[in-house]
Design goal:
- The complex is a heterodimer.
- Chain A has 25 helices and 46 strands.
- Chain A is α/β, with parallel strands linked by helices.
- Among the domains of chain A are: about 435-530, Calycin beta-barrel core domain (Lipocalin, Beta Barrel), CATH 2.40.128; about 625-910, TIM Barrel (Alpha-Beta Barrel).
- In chain A, strands 1, 2, 3, 4, 5, 17, 18 and 19 form an 8-stranded mixed β-sheet that branches.
- In chain A, helix 14 (about 660-665) links the parallel strand 33 (about 625-630) and strand 34.
- Chain B has 2 domains: about 1-80 and about 370-425, Urease, subunit C, domain 1 (Roll), CATH 2.30.40.10; about 80-365, Metal-dependent hydrolases (TIM Barrel, Alpha-Beta Barrel).
- In chain B, strands 1, 2, 3, 4, 5, 15, 16 and 17 form an 8-stranded mixed β-sheet that branches. Chain B has an 8-stranded mixed β-sheet with strand order 6-7-8-9-11-12-13-14, sandwiched between helices.
- In chain B, helix 10 packs across helix 11 (about 330-340).
- Chain B is globular and about 70 Å long.
- The chains are: A alpha/beta, B alpha/beta.
- At the A-B interface, helix 14, helix 21, helix 22, helix 25 and strand 46 of A face strand 10, helix 11 and helix 14 of B.
């Protein structure tokens, strides 16, 4: 035992020279053979094969042989590994090891439109594809010992900064000159949605990041196709150079994987994902795209839930994530999704092994865990001929463990071997001195000495003759212990004792002195072996015993354990507001099947249908909100440039937003999710159905016309943005007009450029610069081609008039003016132009341009003949759009039918979906709401909200779900209380504020 | 003649009103008293600015006073004027335009600033609020911890002096929250906690000093802030504390008790979590924004709608309020929502009439259609709490009829005319 230790230390101090090097040596060249024979070990040659008792021969950093026969040639240093387990060395695919830290100076208060970086780089600072980790890699920047202590031998290292992050390097974790550590200098390229240290404004949102990535790929291709003829750009060149490389895309949420995958599909590339750790929440859908995912093992701590009120601030999502996060690796393994394990999300990488064991307890098999740390990463990086398993000719990278490192809490890594060189990890473990010792000789002020703690951090206490405890400071090194303590037992021995001893078998033997300065000898015998503290074990045991709760879809309160299904149903004896002719049917039945309305009439018979008694109740088509900002994540505005037609709300949908459910409870079935109004030409909108529990893409209204948000007035001219925001064009309404004329003029020129090029012969094409594919101008062209339609945020009459003129001059129609609070002043002009109006019922006075807003607006527009809707632009108001529609009866005396259409059929028409929804008619989608009473009265409440024949909201089920939420929360809180009592570390209970968007909200996609 | 002159002169003194105090008998109306009761087919007689008779006979008093004008209100509803107990009315015209904002003063402790000084009688917003039945509103300073002193205003008047119904009703305090937030921009939990602790120390120091200061009848050096607190300790002024988080509500009440004050809690989003505490301490609540989202993701989705019913069922005194200025016109409908979610309809009306008057300490003269109280009332053709049928035809403040037209009706009429649409 001791011998091994000695060798390890010897090796650590020696300098290995195996091959020729370019650098000089100061002194005498010391050529050490470095031949080792590790015998009698239990060896995992790979994740699937274990040799029970085998020996491993190493020469010059490589494996020479591995066999169950013991046949050691001369010249090898023999290391006895009996009762030890050898695993192949771990590989971490996602680190920033050896790279200097990026300084994030934060955002400038003044707008920055174009990169301030010097040189021929991308216009956007977040595109840093030209960066290569190798250019500033040095072992001096990081401490390899932390990684080695967790079993890692090789890491992939990259700079986690920016959207295109450049390339990474695969490096060895040895302590050598940097030159000798590089395994692969351009191992992979890296991406993310976060702009990192870039001080530039664009992109400020997730959808902006996505647009930037897409445009950069198109630009890179354009550069490649027109090499030498167009600008030189190091960043785009790098994207081209990295085409064949592995690409690692870091995400912060499971839904991000699907967002990134959409980009991958568009450009026919493959991404490996650095996951967020919540993949288990959508595992079945993930399996469909079958990704490779690198996951961290950062599991949330328990929350401080002793305080009843504070505990109430933690959401069910957070509580459940605490419980289920450790099962994430197991969930991926069970779904047969390929994954790699990384230290990257851990604040302290030294927690890696503990968390790995936790993941194993939560169902991850040892085999899967070992694969994820060895052969999978090796295969991903194409270095499985060098690392990832233990075979002849491969790098001698492995770990020697005292036991099963995946299962046993007490098992430790004794040494980590990298390129045939041993790095001692827990040498103290070679001699476990912990235990209880009884003093057998010498009056040393204590009758017992108890040594406990971890092997690395030993702690000692004494028990005095009066059975009280005694604090002892100790030091242990090389089998020698020194102790100092103050027993103060009687008048003769007041003062501090200083003792030294060494260990012989189970005996401590040494000398020392008390305050009198007289030296003495003493001995103590081990009477009890050390036992791991019971509390920790119990806590772990407790956690393991308790069953895990189910996954909810979506993973939030009011989610369900299985997805809701369409039903055949017969709604009987309802008062039906058809929005057709006749407008009202009394005591009438509606039959729904396969998501459609199939029959309307009296006394319909359908034996196999679920019957819903609607006597005394009202059935209407579902509410359609023309202007909504719910279910959007990380930024509703890409308001950093005047024209951001390239961004798409559809790229940033959040299907887990609780407001989807809350609005279902208000009878909303369809909503147009609009980009905000921070710039004249905002992003493309997404029309969704509120299919609670589905994936982002499944929310989208199939076949709906594409729309885009335009905006006018105070928001786009930044009137209320503070004094520093006065440099972006436009700052006036006259400037706003010019933005539009310019954008459409450029689009037309772009169109002719494309047309001219397409008419060229192949030979001429090869000599001509091809037109650059421009996402922004492509979108503008769609508007001109009448393939995309405008919903324009607008308030005062002058600007409404202006936009209609601009549209007329470019021969298209403005589809919808949204907000349109002064629409009543130009209703005749709007009717002549053919525009729709979508307005608020009674909002006003919140800024200067709405001072002439009147609640009669919707009624006047309706009476003039403009198709008019009432919208929300507000997550709260959308829950009672029925009430807002009723206000058009109060203000403007519309009929009930006219008022009801303001929130149903009229918005359906302006969104071009009235062939599918907006009225109760045979053949239309079964998107209907059953109300307790007249939906325009204050007492109205939806009892059932149905989309595509699926009951997404049911008032009775809602009550059950409330109970389920309360029970599940209480179960988790009780579990946390138990665990905390057993000593588990915890975190404070704080409330997470979820962002609710309005038109003019600007939010930065997190920088880091 | 002499008598009426005298009454006129008196009313000038009492109400500072130049308008005619009308003598009207409303006959045959559905009378919503405001205390939770309803009289079908009843009669109200108003004279000299007060309600002189109320009866459940359709025309009982019609013959007694032959000089009275009889208004046939058959099939119509008469309500007491609604009271908005917490608003920015008159202090804010255009939310985004700084020049029009007068509700936030500089500094953390400003008990001496008085809302009525900023109150703009001619705000264009006020007539739109009035025409939905809100005839009295409290106007409240915001910002800092002790935000200032609020006043109850009649929503008609030539200037703030004659518009004021009760000056300096109370001092307002924003309770520093004990709730810990987690966000990328938020300080650490420990820092948040210590910041709040510091503010508590400051606040307690301030109250202690103010109390001691006011024990001396003629202090040598005048302190405007402390002087403004005087009536608070004597109970003449009320203490309104805005607190939402459960612990904040409890802390705010306990803090007030240290100074012998029973506060009114404003906002009180977590009131449903501390029902017993509120009840035991006899705390009244100004409950804000029935039309709002639940504060926590997991909350019952209709929690803001039904919170009033929870308080009502627990027997806690409360009135309904909306935050803001122009939004006050929707106060009747927010009360209507609380009725849809469990408060009996007439009690929901009480929550924006008599309960508000009681909480603000003006119930002797305001808040219900009761003999001897102010003739501040309105006629609606439909249910005032339902936006579909609410339609206020005429309204009186202290017996004087007020104009219900506003700039918005005028624009409506102007443009209907432009388009040749019949009204």
């Amino acid at each position: 035992m001791k011998k091994t230790l000695l060798y390890c230390l010897f090796i650590l101090l020696s300098l290995r020279v195996t091959a020729q090097q370019t650098f000089p040596i100061n002194g005498v060249a010391e050529v050490v053979p470095n031949k080792f024979a590790l015998i009698d070990a239990s060896i995992y040659v790979d994740a699937h094969t274990r040799l029970a008792k085998a020996s491993l021969l190493i020469d010059g950093g490589k494996i020479v042989s591995i066999s169950e026969k013991v046949n050691i040639p001369a010249g090898y240093v023999v290391i006895n590994c009996i009762n030890k387990i050898i695993y192949p060395g771990f590989i971490d695919a996602y680190t920033s090891y050896g790279l200097s830290e990026t300084k994030n100076e934060g955002n400038s208060e003044d707008p920055i439109f174009i990169s301030t970086k010097e040189g021929a780089y991308h216009w956007n600072e977040a595109v840093r594809s030209e960066y290569n980790a190798i250019t500033n890699f040095s072992v001096k920047h990081s401490d390899p010992t932390i990684f080695r202590s967790q079993g890692f031998t090789v890491v992939n290292t990259l700079k986690k900064d920016g959207i295109f992050r450049g390339t990474s390097a695969l490096v060895s974790l040895g302590s050598e000159r940097d030159n000798l550590l590089i395994i692969s200098p351009n191992a992979a390229s890296a991406l993310s949605f976060r702009k990192g240290s870039s001080k530039q404004d664009y992109p400020s949102s997730l959808m902006g990041s996505i647009a930037l990535i897409r445009q950069s790929y198109y630009d890179a291709k354009w550069l490649k196709d027109n090499k030498g003829k167009v600008e030189f750009n190091q960043s785009l060149q790098a994207i081209n150079d990295q085409q064949s490389k592995i690409k690692i895309f870091e995400v912060t949420d499971v839904h991000d994987i699907f967002r990134a995958q959409k980009i991958a599909d568009e450009f026919n590339i493959n991404y490996i994902f650095k996951g967020a750790g919540n993949e288990y929440q959508r595992i079945a859908e993930l399996k469909k795209i079958n990704p490779i995912i690198i996951i961290g093992l950062n599991f949330p701590k328990i929350y401080d839930v002793e305080d009843y009120f504070d505990a109430g601030n933690i959401s069910l999502t957070e509580l459940k994530n605490w419980e289920l996060a450790p099962s994430n690796p197991a969930a991926l393994a069970h779904a047969n999704i390929k994954f790699l394990l990384s230290t990257s999300d851990l604040k302290k990488p030294s927690e890696f092994l503990n968390n790995l064991r936790k993941a194993v307890k939560y169902g991850l098999s040892e085999e899967s865990a070992l694969s994820a740390l060895t052969e999978t990463p090796a295969a991903v990086f194409g270095i499985n001929d060098q690392v990832g398993s233990l075979k002849k000719g491969m790098r001698a990278n492995f770990i020697i463990c005292s036991g099963n490192i995946f299962k046993e809490e007490s098992a430790t890594i004794l040494s980590t071997w990298i390129d045939g060189k041993s790095y001692a990890i827990n040498p103290a473990n070679e001699n476990d001195i912990r235990g209880t010792y009884q003093v057998t000789n010498g009056n040393i002020g204590t009758k017992e000495i108890i040594i406990k703690g971890t092997l690395i951090d030993l702690v000692a206490t004494g028990i005095k003759s009066d059975s009280t405890d005694l604090a002892i400071k100790l030091n242990y090194f090389e089998n020698q212990i020194s102790m100092i303590y103050d027993p103060s037992i009687d008048s003769t021995s007041i003062g501090k004792f200083r003792l030294n001893a060494s260990f012989v078998g189970n005996q401590m033997m040494g000398s020392g002195t008390g305050s009198d300065g007289k030296p003495f000898n003493w001995t103590a015998n081990k009477i009890k072996a050390f036992q791991e503290p019971i509390v920790a074990n119990e806590a772990i045991q407790k956690e393991k015993e308790l069953k895990l709760g189910p996954v909810y879809y979506p993973f939030t309160a009011y989610g369900t354990t299985s997805t809701l299904q369409a039903e055949k149903m017969l709604i009987k004896n309802a008062t039906i507001w058809t929005n057709e002719s006749p407008a009202v049917l009394t005591e009438t039945d509606v039959l729904i099947n396969k998501g459609k309305i199939v029959q309307i009439g009296k006394n319909i018979q359908a034996l196999d249908a679920k019957v819903i008694d609607a006597s005394g109740k009202y059935l209407t088509s579902g509410i359609i909100d023309e202007h909504s900002h719910i279910a959007i994540t990380r930024g509703v505005n890409e308001g950093t440039q005047s024209n951001t037609a390239e961004v798409r709300i559809g790229d940033a949908l959040d299907p887990d937003d609780i407001n989807i459910y809350r609005q279902l409870a208000g009878g909303v079935t369809t909503a147009q999710l609009l980009h905000g109004s921070a710039n004249p030409i905002g992003g493309q909108s997404a029309v969704i159905k509120l299919r609670w529990g589905k994936m982002a893409e499944e929310l989208k209204f199939e076949g709906a016309s594409p729309f885009i948000k335009f905006a006018l007035g105070e928001n786009v001219k930044q009137s209320n943005w503070g004094d520093r925001q006065q440099t972006r064009f436009p700052q006036t309404r006259m400037g706003v007009e010019q933005v539009y004329i310019d954008a459409f003029t450029r689009a037309k020129e772009y169109e002719s450029e494309k047309l001219n090029y397409s008419r060229l012969s192949a030979a001429a094409k090869s000599k001509t610069i091809s037109p650059r594919f421009d996402l922004e101008l492509e979108t503008m062209l769609e508007i001109l081609y009448k393939k995309r339609f405008i919903s324009c945020h607008s308030y005062v009459q002058s600007e409404i008039n202006m936009l209609m003129h601009v549209a007329d001059s470019f021969q298209f129609t403005v589809n919808t003016f949204t907000h349109i609070l002064e629409g009543y002043k130009v209703a005749d002009k709007m009717k002549a132009h053919g525009a729709n109006a979508s307005t608020f019922s009674d909002w006003w006075a919140y800024k200067f341009e709405v001072m002439d807003a009147i609640p009669y607006n919707a009624a006047i527009l309706t009476k003039v003949g403009v198709n008019t809707a009432i919208n929300s632009d507000d997550a709260e108001m959308a829950r009672r759009l029925n009430q807002e529609a009723a206000k058009a009866i109060k203000y403007g005396a519309l009929t009930e039918t006219e008022a009801w259409k303001l929130v149903t059929l009229n918005p359906a028409k302006m969104l071009h979906i009235d062939h599918r929804v907006g009225s109760i008619k045979v053949g239309k989608d079964a998107d209907v709401v059953l109300w307790n009473t007249n939906p325009l009265t204050i007492d109205a409440k939806p009892e059932k909200t149905i989309i595509d024949g699926v009951i997404y909201f049911d008032a009775a089920r809602d009550l059950e779900l409330r109970t389920q939420v309360a029970k599940e929360k209480e179960r988790l809180i009780q579990k946390m209380l138990d665990l905390k009592k057993l000593g588990m570390p915890s975190q404070k209970a704080a409330i997470k504020e979820k962002k609710l968007y309005h038109c003019d909200d600007m939010e930065q996609e997190m920088s880091n | 003649m002499k008598k009426s002159l005298l009454i006129f002169a008196l009313s000038m003194v009492n109400y500072a009103y130049a308008q005619q105090k009308e003598n009207i008998i409303f006959a045959g109306a559905t009378i919503h008293i405001g205390n939770g009761e309803l009289i079908e087919n009843g009669t109200i007689h108003i004279k000299n600015g007060i309600i002189v008779a109320i009866d459940n006979e359709p025309s009982a008093n019609a013959t007694i006073d032959p000089t009275a004008i009889v208004v046939n209100a058959k099939g119509k509803h008469i309500y007491p004027g609604l009271i908005a107990p917490y608003s920015r009315l008159g202090l804010e015209e255009v939310e985004a335009v700084r020049a029009t904002l007068d509700y936030r003063e500089v500094g953390e402790l400003n008990p001496n600033v008085r809302a009525l000084i900023s109150y703009n009688t001619d705000s264009k917003l006020i007539p739109t609020v009035r025409s939905n039945g809100v005839l009295t509103a409290m106007t409240v300073p915001e910002g800092g911890i002790v935000t200032g002193s609020s006043s109850l205003m009649k929503l008609a008047g030539w200037n703030w002096e004659d518009a004021v119904y009760k000056a300096d009703v109370g001092i307002h305090l924003n309770w520093p929250t004990m709730r810990i937030y987690s966000a990328s921009w938020a300080p650490s939990a420990e820092d948040q906690k210590s910041n709040t602790e510091k503010r508590f120390i400051e606040l307690r120091k301030f109250f202690n000093q103010a109390k001691a200061y006011n024990e001396i009848s003629r202090p040598l050096v005048k302190n405007l802030k402390f002087a403004a607190m005087q009536d608070l300790f004597s109970g003449k002024k009320k203490l309104f504390i805005a607190a939402d988080y459960s612990k904040d509500i409890i802390a705010a009440v306990n803090f007030s008790k240290e100074f012998g004050i029973t506060p009114i809690i404003v906002g009180a989003r977590d009131a449903h979590l501390v029902l017993n505490f509120l009840k035991e301490n006899n705390i009244a609540i100004i409950l804000e924004n029935a039309h709002s989202l639940p504060s926590r993701e997991d909350d019952d989705i209709d929690l803001p709608y039904k919170k009033a019913a929870i308080l009502y069922n627990a027997g806690i005194k409360y009135c309904m309020a909306i935050n803001g200025s122009w939004q006050q016109r929707n106060l009747p409908f927010e009360a209507g929502t609380t009725a849809a979610y469990g408060v009996p309809r007439e009690m929901a009306l009480r929550s924006v009439t008599l309960s508000a008057a009681e909480i603000l300490g003006v119930a002797d003269n305001l808040g219900s259609l009761t003999k001897g109280k102010d003739a501040t009332l309105l006629i609606s053709t439909g249910d005032l709490l339902d936006m579909k049928s609410s339609s206020v035809e005429r309204a009186w403040i202290q017996g004087s009829e007020i104009k219900l037209k506003n700039s918005q009706n005028e624009l409506n009429e102007k443009y209907l005319k432009k388009y040749g649409i019949d009204q």
